[in-house]
């Protein structure tokens, strides 16, 4: 492919192909009886319905999903933002879990945040 044709081809790719994944900035885990509440702060350059952080989930240390928190809309004017999920059942012997964020249309971030349960 000629260099000019390659450059033009890159220009017409969707911008979201190069977008940053959602980043988890903070997680607070609070035990309440036999379940946990997770308050997760995410930063993501939401640009509207075509590209936004659309969820996060709690995983055990083997990668099994314990709970998922969908995010119903873009947060273009609220960065970073915090959303909570209560009633998460974590195995009694678990000392840590992972939290992973997702965006539309790119899917799950390959990075997770490890949270020590106290």
* CATH homolog superfamily: C2 domain
CATH topology description: Immunoglobulin-like
Q: Helical element count? A: 1
* Fraction in helix: under 10%
Instruction: Give a quick account of the main beta sheet: strands, pairing sense, barrel closure.
Output: 5 strands, antiparallel
Q: Averaging pLDDT over every residue, what do you get?
A: 88
Order of helices and strands: HEEEEEEEE
CATH architecture: Sandwich
Low-confidence stretches: 5-17
Oligomer: single chain
Q: Which percent range describes the beta-strand content? A: over 45%
E-strand count: 8
- What count of structural domains? 1
Indicate the radius of gyration in whole angstroms: 17 Å
